[in-house]
Amino acid sequence: MFRRLLAVVLTLGVILFAGWMTLRRGDIPYEQLEAIYANADSRYIAFGDDMRVHFRDVGPRDGKVIILVHGFSASLQTWEPWVNNLKTDFRVISLDLPGHGLSRCLDNSKIGPAQFVDTINRVANTLQVDRFTLAGNSMGGAAAWNYALTYPARLDGLVLVDAAGWPRAEVANESRPVIFRLLDIGFARQVMKDLDLSPLIRGGLENSFGDPSFVTDEMVERYATLARAPCHREALLEIVSGRGERREATPELLSDIRTPTLVMHGEGDNLIPVEHGEQFAAAIPGAKLIRYPGVGHLPQEEIADLSESDLRAFLTNDVYGVSEVALEDITAPMD
Fold first, then answer.
1. CATH superfamily of 30-329
2. What pLDDT band is residue 16 in, cutting at 50, 70 and 90?
3. For residues 264 and 277, what is the distance between their CA atoms, to the nearest angstrom?
């Protein structure tokens, strides 16, 4: 009986190992990724001999400047619908955070808000941009409000798009896509680290939009492929594991922000509940809140024209140009 059970266990082990080997995917060299995902506007800033940060800098040199910061596992491509419209009138700088997109990793043990704030600041300094509006989505939103606390004198405006930072309630955790819940488990992270996660990535992306049809094969391929850059999977796992640095938002902390602030949040966001957007707007003095019914975690992609129009109105201080939905949800006038 024992021998039969042992044989079954060993057989299952062999099958699982064979399946793991079949699904295992190695790293893709940066040069190969750049040939696919860089374009004529792509530039790089050296942080050391082997450390480079990828960014794009478009639009009139004398225009108002806005810097765009993406979220977890994403890249600067998430902003392209906004960039294509904004660059006619504004100087638009979008960047890949360390361990994302085409940027190399820095110190993965210290990945988190402080490292991201320093990266944003180095890019601004290198481009000799003294003042700008900073916009961030999700994890990039957390980097943005942390930047506002660290370098308030440099900002003309702050835009938080479905921003992260508030402690997550247990009930909210249950609504997260399965890929993020699996990555919370240490053993699962190690097993999944080198696998082809395209099916899970597709599910996570579809859960990020109010309308899942926005997710295309090309989008899934881009997320999966860029995650296979050398050291990127380790960086993403550091963030998910919580071993990297992090900082939680509190009303007391955010009350120190005096930068004019626009909070944008999809009411159908399954990753960060709209209540968190309301908390940002309530905590930051004078902040304006725009809630988008039926929209998910990525308004800059899902409702690109409407959200860009609302952003443009904020950048030009034209409250009457904000959408009707926005006017209904503005919490307080700017100081």
1. Alpha/Beta hydrolase fold, catalytic domain (3.40.50.1820)
2. very low
3. 7
**Given a cut of 60, is residue 59 above it in pLDDT?**
yes
pLDDT tens-place string over residues 161-206: 999 999 977 545 555 555 455 555 554 545 555 555 667 889 999 9
Angle between helices 139-150 and 113-126 (to 10 degrees): 70
Evaluate whether 58 touches 88 at the Cβ level (below 8 Å).
Answer: no
Q: Rounded CA gap, 228 and 197, in Å?
A: 11
Scanning the structure block, which residue is given the tokens 């904000």?
322
Q: How confident is the model at residue 283 (pLDDT cuts 50, 70, 90)?
A: very high
Q: What are phi and psi for residue 2, nearest 5 degrees?
A: -65, -40
Write out the two tokens for 101: 């997109």
**How many helices (H) and strands (E) in the chain?**
16, 8
Distance CA 214, CA 301 (A): 8
